[in-house]
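User: Structure please.
Assistant: Input sequence and predicted structure:
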Amino acid sequence: MDCSANDRYGLYLIRYGVQTGNCGGTRLLGGWVDHAMALPGYCALDAPDRWSDDECTFERAYTCPDPADDLVTSWSGATTQRDDDAEFLTGSANVQSTRLDGTVLCTGTIELELSLDN
């Protein structure tokens, strides 16, 4: 398969499904993805992003403090391109959501499926 970071561009439908833990059920939502992989303004990377040598797998770890909701959510995971045009990606992420005072609300592993919404 021929992978490229630049192929990951467009509006993807993102399906989240809980594999382990207590962070909720399956959800379906849309999200814009591009090769720059911008984070929301209130989020910060926990470590540098990593691409596999063949550019098929992308790894990211980031934290999003949200004082308005008294929450801090941390994500660490990877997605892998499943076709030549990056129309379908799969992966998983570890997630933890806590209150600003440190009280843990949920932890778990989330399965991710992304499909390009043509």
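Strands lie at 10-21, 27-33, 44-45, 50-51, 57-66, 71-81, 88-99, 104-116.
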